[in-house]
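Supplementary notes for students who missed Thursday's class. We covered one full example, reproduced here. Read the sequence, then the structure, then the short commentary at the end.
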Amino acid sequence: MKDLSKMKLVFEENFDTELAEGKWAESVYTERFYPEIIDFGYTTTLDGEKADKPCALVDSNISAKDGKLILRAKGGAEEVYTGSELRTKDFFNYGYFEIKAKLCTSKGVCPAFWLLGSRDSASKIEYEVDVFECFGKMPGIIKNTLLAHNYPNGSQGGNHGTEHRFLYNRVSEEPIPKKDMVKVFEENFNKTFFAGNWSEEFHTFGLDWQKDSITWYVDGEPMLSAIPSEVFDGKYIYNEPMRVVLTCYSGRDVCSPLTGLPDATTDWENGNRIEIDYLKVYQY
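Structure (token representation):
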């Protein structure tokens, strides 16, 4: 289990009351601290599916009461597929980040917990660490990802435009999902998928980010580890502040055929949300 005895709790939100405006950042999509409607501009998936209506973020999909934060996605008879997103106002440099959450997904819905830097940083690189993404076509699967946007030489080591995905080591004995389930990904990225009953009960998802190591945790146990300085001789490492982002996207593919677009099978009542019991940030 992760030992937090030598760490200091620097941020905690238990969602016992409505969200305090000062704790959450103004969204990049709007001047409000809750997102308003904005069209993402994604119209097709990598499988060639075409969206039949625009995708958006709306504040009405977010609630925080009775000790739970709920981020929803909506569609069905709606004119716009809507999702939700919150970002912490503060940026953090290293620490242990953890939420306790239940992930209720179906086709076209993708909840996620991640850290994101700023392209206005010293390096101009926007660092991103996905503590998890849960894909709508495969609600029993999560994926953990380490990547950088606006990364030089992005064509090396697996990329999408200027997005660079780094490789890491699997430290858990949990079985890798069947290869045909993740065949769209390169062989060496299959190790980043984990199977579980994410929608049936609450689990803890954590990330330990230190100066030269990043480790992913599920239910207190380490699952993956990475040494960023081993990439490109240590020229670029994860040493710039990042903020916490919580999302539940709808109607966009998030560059993954494993999410897809909503259709008649999408469960807009039970498979459209992430429920979060708490968010905690510790620092050494």
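Commentary. The first strand starts at residue 8 and ends at 13. Residues 28-37, 154-161 have pLDDT under 50 and may be disordered. If anything here is unclear, bring it to office hours.
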